[in-house]
Amino acid sequence: MEYEEDIENYEDIKPIYYKDLGEELKPILKKMCLMVKAPYTKINFSSYGWFRLHNWTRDQQNEFRDWLADYLYKAPAKVRKKLLRHNLKTKKYCLDAAKSFVLSYGWVTNDEEIKGVR
User: How is residue 62 annotated by DSSP?
Assistant: First the structure.
C-alpha cells in the first residue's frame, strides 16, 4: 500500500464524530457513495464501521483521494477549518489530509486487487 507509507502526518484529518457529520462533510460522503454506486441516503453514517459496507478498487480509491485533495484545496477556509486539524492551503497538506481520510474512512479495497489477482 504505497500511499499509506508516504503519509507524513497521519493526524491531518479530524476524527469524524458520528453525531456531528456537518454540512462540510456531506459532499465528501456523497462523492464516496457515487463512486461505488452506494445509496447515500440509505447509509447510516452514525453507525460504527459504516465505511466497511462497500468496496472499491485501488483505482477508485486513488481517484477519490485526488478528488478530495483538490476539493480541500479549493474549499473555502471555513470548510478546511471544520474538517482539518490545521487550516493550511497547500496542495501537499491537502493531499496528505486526503490520504489520511482514505486510510481512516475509505471503503474497503477489493481483496482481489490487493493480491494481484485482478
Answer: H
Contact between 30 and 71 under an 8 Å Cβ cutoff? The reply is no
- Residue ranges of domains in the chain: 25-37+52-118
What's this model's pTM, rounded to 2 decimal places?
Answer: 0.76
- Residues with Cβ within 8 Å of residue 54, at least 6 apart in sequence: 33, 36, 38, 107, 108
Mean pLDDT, range 90-96, rounded to an integer: 93
Is the pLDDT at 20 greater than 50, yes or no?
Answer: yes
The phi, psi pair for 36, rounded to 5°, reads -115, 10
d(CA 56, CA 32): 10
The answer to whether 72 and 45 have CB atoms below 8 angstroms apart is no
List alpha helices for the chain, DSSP H.
Answer: 2-5, 22-36, 58-74, 77-83, 91-105, 111-115
